[in-house]
Amino acid sequence: MSKKYVYFFGGGKAEGSKEMKNLLGGKGANLHEMTNLGIPVPPGFTISTEACVHYFKTGRYPEGLKQQVEEAVRRLEELTGKKFGSTENPLLVSVRSGARVSMPGMMDTILNLGLNDDAVKGLAKRTGDERFAYDSYRRFIQMFGEIVMGIPHRVFEELLDKKKKGKGVNLDYELDADALKELVEEYKAKVRELTGKEFPQNPQEQLWMAIEAVFKSWNNKRAIEYRKLHRIPDDWGTAVNVQTMVFGNMGFDSATGVAFTRDPSTGEKVLYGEYLPNAQGEDVVAGIRTPKPISELEKEMPEAYKQLVEIFDRLEKHYRDMMDLEFTIEKG
């Protein structure tokens, strides 16, 4: 029996808890804890820090990891009713790093993994929104191309800016489905030109390339410098969190944001943070669009805001501390 490296969470039950920070990383441990509390956490699984440590010591994945990841993906497909690479109802995931202590912005995140030339059509058909599907695909190619395939961020940004100028628009969300389809092809051509390889179309291959990139991000220059500065040991490694996607970019009834359960400067019990409608997580931190204060969410999406307040209250009572959280609203 091989050692356990993969811990599943979803459907109101999780195999981990907040006490397992050293094994599951801070982010992973809290995803498991919140799932067990009944908070609406999108289902997923965490690959332990021990798998990362083994990878760096030996240069390969530990025995049993591949089978455990495949089993976790199968469980995700069963729970969500979606399938990796499906042309009808594709399963899309995010892949994120998560060390046992917070290292903001030091390691890497990939969203919308699982999209390819066929699955994007399935997503468009399933949601009835072609623009959203191709927006998600171009974002995925950009993040995967940069983080996994080593293509500089500016290369994609230049193509995006050129497309906006050519179409006479200023903001990303003003590009229509046809413009985004063209952009996807331009992105893929650029990947081919700069790497000599086609953009990977097999979701399983995409997943393993992303897992390896997250492990390697533990030893990127930024992360090493940060650890030196904060005296974080090099041999802790990072966990990997693979989680079903929830989409904040499905239109102006969707949003993504970050918030504290209290005002961090005064301690006043009031939601404090910001959000962006019709956006994905990286838009909030990239500074391309100006986020709105969270107080406006109450006017724009009162039901979603109410649910957010209830969740924040429950979490503060449970953890007995001020919390900061990331959230996404899909069709709120």
TrEMBL record:
The keyword Coiled coil applies. Keywords: Coiled coil, Pyruvate, Transferase. It comes from the Bacteria. Its EC number is 2.7.9.1. It is an enzyme of class 2 (transferase). Residues 22-59, 65-292 form the Pyruvate phosphate dikinase AMP/ATP-binding domain. One of its GO terms (molecular function) is ATP binding. Pfam families: PPDK_N (PF01326). Residues 170-197 form a coiled coil. This is Pyruvate, phosphate dikinase. It comes from candidate division WOR-3 bacterium. The lineage of its organism: Bacteria, Bacteria division WOR-3.
